[in-house]
Write a structure and sequence with these properties.
binds nickel (II) ion, globular, mainly alpha
Length: 249
């Protein structure tokens, strides 16, 4: 169930059944010659909605712009500074907590968000720790989960793509967008077949090291059929992970 398609009364009713909510978080950044700028937000959103439908979970609006400063030398990329994203995540959690949500599950599509979102969780926990009347009870819990790292997705990516998976503009994430948005499938030739690997620093350095935007990957291998299998593997694993999060002390 999508929060945006509910009334406030429906949200109140949902809170009687579950105090958990899924927040998809991604990025708006270049994804190489055949990957969509929205890949990380679109994949996280699609998979979160799949979990929502199959597991009676509520899904919040997607945080579509993430921490992507290193992609800024490519047209169309957008970024929040780490400090801005910390504030966005912090306020998102506090807004939901205000209504009684106490298990906030961030379903992430972008590796560049991990450090910043984790720092935002520390801000949330610092609020509780600095509250004199905080007591000693279990309270608000946040979790960040990367959809592309569940056991089922990792096994399938390896089987489908092996070393050609790489780490940015991967055939797996491109395949999931091809499954979800077949009308937006792009064709492109890429040389070398496997993109270079290396460290991620600032935007101009990134473009120098990774001229077409990819890191270590060959996303020409992506197909919508594979995307469907990856999507289904992700939803299956993540329903289990989300339920375990709701039940954990
Ligand atoms: Ni990505």
């Amino acid at each position: 169930m999508q929060l945006q398609l509910c009334t406030w009364q429906e949200v109140e009713d949902h809170l009687k059944r579950s105090t958990g909510i899924i927040v998809p978080i991604g990025s708006t950044e270049q994804h190489g010659p055949n990957g969509l700028i929205g890949t990380d937000a679109l994949t996280a959103e699609l998979i979160a909605r799949g979990i929502g439908e199959q597991a009676d979970a509520l899904v919040a609006p997607t945080i579509s712009v993430g921490m992507a400063q290193h992609h800024m030398a490519f047209a169309g990329s957008m970024t929040l500074r780490p400090s801005t994203l910390i504030a966005v995540v912090h306020d998102t959690v506090r807004s939901l907590a205000r209504h009684g949500f106490d298990r906030i599950y961030f379903l992430n599509g972008h590796g560049g968000n991990i450090a910043t979102v984790t720092a935002a969780f520390s801000e949330v926990y610092a609020d509780a720790s600095l509250d004199r009347d905080g007591g000693n009870a279990p309270r608000l819990r946040c979790k960040l989960k990367n959809w592309y790292e569940t056991p089922g997705v990792k096994a399938l990516s390896k089987e489908l793509y092996g070393d050609a998976e790489g780490s940015h503009a991967t055939p797996s994430e491109v395949a999931v967008t091809q499954f979800a948005y077949p009308e937006a499938i792009k064709k492109a030739r890429m040389k070398p077949k496997l993109a270079p690997k290396g460290p991620i620093l600032d935007a101009e350095d990134y473009r120098r090291r990774f001229p077409d935007g990819r890191i270590g990957s060959d996303p020409t291998l992506a197909t919508p059929e594979a995307g469907k299998r990856l999507y289904e593997a992700a939803v299956k694993d993540l329903i289990e992970d989300y339920r375990a999060f709701l039940e954990a002390a």
